[in-house]
Specification:
With 78 residues, this protein is of the alpha+beta class. 23% of the residues lie in helices and 13% in strands. It has one domain. It has two helices and three strands, in the order αβαββ.
């Protein structure tokens, strides 16, 4: 028989859900600080089946994460 602590905290399934990222991955051919082409930007959203009403100018220049993957983030709207 399992302890009450196990039954209370461990035995229940945990739903972590999907954490939405503000990052939009881009081809690794871009260097940090580059501007993304309109075609690559649109291809990224078509692949995700998202069609936001934003343009390349609404996103940052290319950044690199610790693994060397290229991404952009949406700039804040004032």
């Amino acid at each position: 028989m399992k302890s009450g602590l196990y039954q209370k905290y461990i035995s229940k399934p945990v739903d972590l859900g999907v954490i939405k990222s503000k990052r939009h991955m881009m081809p690794n051919s871009y260097k940090e600080g580059d501007s993304v082409s309109e075609d690559d930007f649109e291809d990224n959203f078509k692949a995700k089946k998202e069609f936001p009403q934003y343009s390349v100018q609404d996103y940052s220049r290319v950044k690199k994460d610790k693994k060397g993957n290229s991404y952009v983030i949406k700039l804040k709207q004032d």
